[in-house]
Amino acid sequence: MAAVVTIINYQGKILIGKKRLDSQKYLRGEWHIPGETIEQEESDKQALIRGIREEAGIEVKVGRYIGYHITPSSKKEARWYECFSETEKVVPGGDLEDLKWISKKDVLNFCRSKANNLWPKEVKEYFQ
Known about the structure:
By secondary structure, the protein is of the alpha+beta class. The protein has one domain (3-126): Nucleoside Triphosphate Pyrophosphohydrolase (Alpha-Beta Complex). Helix content is 21%, strand content 38%. The chain has four helices and seven strands. The chain has helices at residues 44-56, 107-110, 113-116, 121-126, and strands spanning 3-10, 13-19, 31-32, 35-37, 60-70, 77-85, 96-103. Strand 1 and strand 2 form a beta hairpin. The radius of gyration is 13 Å and the shape is globular. The mean pLDDT is 90.
């Protein structure tokens, strides 16, 4: 199984989510870029749209593929995409306790090294 990670843009801001402390995921309690496991028979695009609908309650337009990394806990490929939202109104869902829009230049500082040490070079460059 693989996963997709969604860099969501809205008017120059990027959506980040904070995992609940009771989450079983690697980044519990941390701010990160939202992602989703791809379900059987699902394309990357379908998983991106479904995942962000579940985690943030918004619809996104899928843009370009950026890169991938291997997740530390499940050793699956996580593919990164740039996506776009037409609204900034979000509602945390899934295993997220909070969501916020921040400037693109602040993402590397907000998402601590536990998260961004995993990111592919192309993603880090995207935020610089």
